[in-house]
């Protein structure tokens, strides 16, 4: 008898962040050609949302210097969204020139993180996005909002759920069609995640929420299960668990897409993603990086 989860979404969308959020934290530079192959493999596996690059200063994020070449070289597939992170209007204009389908902006729920990461307060960081969102509306480009440090911060420690809800609501009201809640340092547990979601859900419809968990303490899948129980059906993850966490030395970064898919398959939640093809994409990029995949499923099935 197959297991049918109660109160869970019947379908889920995986937002693949490996080519951007994953690779940008990898020290070894990956060529535009290899990034294009990876993105095409992910699309071929059935992934319908792929964060494919970011338009930031190459001085700060050298790994993303080839984003224009990547977007120009992708074999774009119908029904697949190719997204880019754009921290400011200059980045947004570069993204438009590269024919990006959708852009993402990021705020933080921690004042200290905002100051150390982008040298301004949370409020100032949000104000900077106003011209970008206005330009996106004119260009008919959707904007996704990220909130960092939703349960903990490397500098401030515990983050009040109300603060997360406040920042998320501001991004939503500014025009972000979806808000991705990010546990940047991976300290969340089902209890702290539930508390945070309780606060956010009072201000934003659950169908407008996504989750983005790092697996620093091995809690990401448990936290995703909690989010699913709350009716959240959009999950960010990274192929092969790419990308360490820059704020926790030696820590693993994003939860692996293969592991998330295995969880969703086990709950009979439909994604239309082919596990075999997904595994091949993970093995391809792991080989290019010269390291083993951080995915438990990948390790088990390769053996």
Structure description:
This protein has 303 residues and is α/β, with parallel strands linked by helices. The protein has one domain: Alpha-Beta Barrel (TIM Barrel). Helices cover 42% and strands 16% of the residues. It is built from twelve helices and ten strands. The strands form two sheets. An eight-stranded parallel β-barrel has the order 1-2-3-4-5-8-9-10, surrounded by eight helices. Helix 2 crosses helix 3 and helix 6 runs parallel beside helix 7. It is globular and about 45 Å long. It starts with 12 loop residues before the first strand and ends with a helix.
Write down the CATH class.
Alpha Beta
As for the CATH topology, it is TIM Barrel
Number of domains: 1
- How would you describe the oligomerization state of the chains in this entry? single chain
Give start-end ranges of low-pLDDT stretches: none
Coarse morphology:
globular
**How many distinct beta strands?**
10
Helix content: 40-55%
The topology string of helices and strands comes to: EHHEHEHEHHEEEHEHEHEHHH
Report the CATH architecture: Alpha-Beta Barrel
Q: Which features characterize this protein?
A:
8-stranded parallel beta barrel; TIM Barrel; 303 residues; single chain
């Amino acid at each position: 008898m197959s297991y049918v989860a109660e109160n869970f979404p019947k379908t889920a969308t995986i937002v693949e962040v490996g080519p951007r959020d994953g690779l940008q934290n990898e020290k070894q530079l990956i060529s535009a050609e290899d990034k294009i192959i990876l993105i095409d493999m992910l699309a071929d596996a059935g992934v319908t949302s792929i964060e494919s690059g970011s338009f930031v200063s190459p001085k700060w994020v050298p790994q993303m210097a080839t984003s224009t070449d990547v977007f120009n070289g992708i074999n774009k597939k119908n029904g697949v969204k190719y997204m880019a992170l754009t921290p400011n209007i200059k980045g947004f204009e570069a993204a438009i020139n590269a024919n990006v389908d959708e852009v993402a902006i990021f705020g933080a729920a921690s004042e200290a993180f905002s100051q150390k990461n982008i040298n301004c307060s949370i409020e100032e960081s949000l104000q900077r996005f106003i011209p970008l969102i206005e330009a996106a509306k004119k260009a008919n480009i959707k904007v996704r909002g990220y909130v960092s440090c939703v349960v903990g911060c490397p500098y401030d420690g515990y983050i009040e759920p109300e603060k997360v809800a406040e920042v998320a609501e501001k991004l939503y009201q500014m025009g972000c069609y979806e808000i991705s809640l990010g546990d940047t340092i991976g300290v969340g547990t089902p209890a702290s995640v539930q508390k945070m979601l309780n606060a956010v859900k009072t201000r934003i419809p659950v169908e407008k929420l996504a989750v983005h968990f790092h697996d620093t303490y091995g809690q990401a899948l448990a936290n995703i299960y909690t989010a699913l129980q709350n009716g959240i059906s959009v999950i960010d993850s990274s192929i092969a668990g790419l990308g360490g966490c820059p704020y926790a030395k030696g820590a693993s970064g994003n939860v692996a897409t293969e592991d998330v898919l295995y969880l969703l398959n086990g709950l009979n939640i439909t994604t239309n993603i082919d596990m075999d093809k997904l595994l091949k994409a993970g093995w391809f990029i792991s080989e290019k990086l010269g390291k083993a995949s951080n995915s438990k499923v990948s390790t088990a099935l390769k053996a």
